[in-house]
Amino acid sequence: MTPYFRRTSDKAFAADLIRRNMAGYFDALGMHWDDALFARQWREMESYQLLVEGSPVGLLCLDPASNVCTIRELQIASAWRSQGLGTAAIGFAEIRARRAGSATLRLRVFTLNPAVALYRRLGFGVVTTEAGAHTMEKRLDRAF
Fold first, then answer.
1. DSSP calls for 27-84
2. Closest of 84, 25, 85 to residue 58, by C-alpha
3. Of 2, 115, 4, residue with least CA distance to 56
């Protein structure tokens, strides 16, 4: 199964998926969803839907910059996890980051999130840990 990545402006889909996926972490860490913050950040991100057989099953939001490309969101619908979509999304992000001239791919992930193991397996290392979240980075080979 190979996902297709399509640019999206579907903020409602994104907000719904993020809220569903992150609810347990927000509860565990005493955090709350902030509509205004999401709306502001949404305008700043380059966002993609992950589609399988034409149906949206995930979300990837990037902030590509000249030296560091940040993965702001990587969300996979629960029914589609553990099927290689996260790995495919990281691969897509690496390609996009290299095209933007970035030397580093960065993300933040809750320390409680099992995706930490995926990111480590894909070459990310923990740079800092604070407020229940790791900042992880991966240096990118400039060859494309």
1. HHHT----HHHHHHHHHHSEEEEEEETTEEEEEEEEE--SSEEEEEEEEE-GGGTTSS
2. 85
3. 4
- Taking only the tens place, the pLDDT of each residue in 19-76 is 999 888 888 888 888 889 899 999 989 999 999 999 999 999 999 877 899 999 999 9
CB atoms within 10 A of CB 129: 11
Assess contact for 61 and 13: CB atoms under 8 A.
no
Element (H, E) at 7: strand 4-7
Render 88-132 in DSSP notation, one character per residue: HHHHHHHHHHHHTT-SEEEEEEETT-THHHHHHHTT-EEEEEETT
